[in-house]
Write a structure and sequence with these properties.
- The protein is an alpha/beta fold and about 375 residues long.
- About 35% of the residues lie in helices and about 20% in strands.
- It is built from 14 helices and 16 strands.
- Strands 3-4-2-1-7-8-9-10 form an 8-stranded mixed sheet, sandwiched between helices. A 6-stranded parallel sheet has the order 13-12-11-14-15-16, with helices on both faces. A two-stranded antiparallel ribbon has the order 5-6.
- β5 and β6 form a beta hairpin.
- The longest helix is centred in the last third of the chain and has 18 residues.
- The protein is globular and about 60 Å long.
- The two termini are about 20 Å apart.
Amino acid sequence: MAEKKKLRILQVNKAYYPHIGGIESLVRTYAVELMKRPDVQMQVLVCQDKRGKTTHEIIEGVPVTRAGSMGTFASCPLSLSFFRLFRKLSKNADVILFHMPFPLGDLACLLSGFKGRVVLAWHSDVVKQKKLLTFYKPVLKKFLKRADAVVTATKGHIDSSAFLPEFRDKCSVIPYGLNADKYINAPLAPVLSEKLCDKKAVKVLFTGRLVYYKGIDVLLRAFEKVRRCELFIVGTGVLEEELKKSAEKMEQKVHFLGVLSDEELRSAFSDCDIFVLPSVENSEAFGIVQLEAMVYGKPVINTALPTGVPFVSLHEETGLTVPPKDSDALAKAINYLAENRDIREKYGKAGFLRVKNEFDEKKVLDRLYDVLKKGVIE
C-alpha cells in the first residue's frame, strides 16, 4: 500500500519563538500542533530579530530557518538572503502560509515564481507606517490577487481593512484558538497578591508590549480616577520609561512587572480580578491575551475598535467595552467591576464558556488545515 502523501507546509513570518509577540506565539502553535499530524511536514522561514547571519535550528521538532538580517526599517526586517532562502524552501512546499503584514514575504513570493497554494493569515493592515504603505500598496494588492485564500480571525478584520473587502470571496473567518487544558492544569502562584500594597485592593492586569497602540497611557490616566484598585503592567517596550515616569505619583497603586515567564504570566492571569486591554489603534486586531484572561474566568475590559478586539470579549456578556482613548469611560468601567464582585463572576463564567465553545484550539486547527490542504490533498 502506497504511503499517504504528506502536506508540505512552509510558514513565513517576520520572527519566531523565543521572540515574544502575539503573532509569533500563533506561528509557534500552528507549527508545533500541525506537525503532530502524521500527514504534515512543516518548515518555518523568518528573519533574525536583529543584525545577524542566517541560522538553521530545530525547535520543538520544527525546522526553523532565520534569514540573515541587516536590521529593520519601519518594523520590517532588511534581508537579501531571505529571497534566496524563500526560493530554496518553497521548492519543497505544497502550500505557503504567510502571516501578514510582512512586505518582504509578499515580494519574495511574487519574485520566486512559486506555483503552489498561497494562504494569507491576515492579522492587521499596515497602520502606522504610512510612508512604507505608499510603496507597499501595489505589491500588497498584487499579492492578494495571487493568493488562493485569506484567513482572518474575525469578520471585523475584513470589514475594517482597507484591502480585504475587495477580496471577500477569498476570505475565511477562523478565530485564534486556545488549549484551555494547558492553562487550567498549569501550576499557579499568587504573583500579584504578594505584591499588593493594599491587601484588600482589586487587582487589575494588563499584559502586552509597551507601544503606542496598546493605550497604556490612557489606562494610566484612567487609573488616577480609579478607587480601591492596584494595576499590574506586564511587558516591556519603547514607551516603558515614559510610562513609568507618568505613573510616579501612583507608585502605591501601579506596579511594572517587566517580562514574566510563561508560568508566571499564567499565574498573573489566574490571580487578577479584572483584565484590561485599552488598545487605541487598529494595529490591535484581536488581542489573544483576552482569551488567556477569559480561560481563567476573568472579566475583560476592551475597546470598541473596528477590528476583531470587541468580537473576542463581548460587551455586557464577558466584560465591558469602552470607546478607545476615553480615560473617563475606562475609569468608570474599572470602578464598576471593582465594586461589583457578582458581575465580575458572572462575566468571568461566561468568558470561560466562550473560550471553550468558540475558541477551542483543536477545532481551530482542524479548520485551518482544511483551508491549507484544499486543492492539494483531498
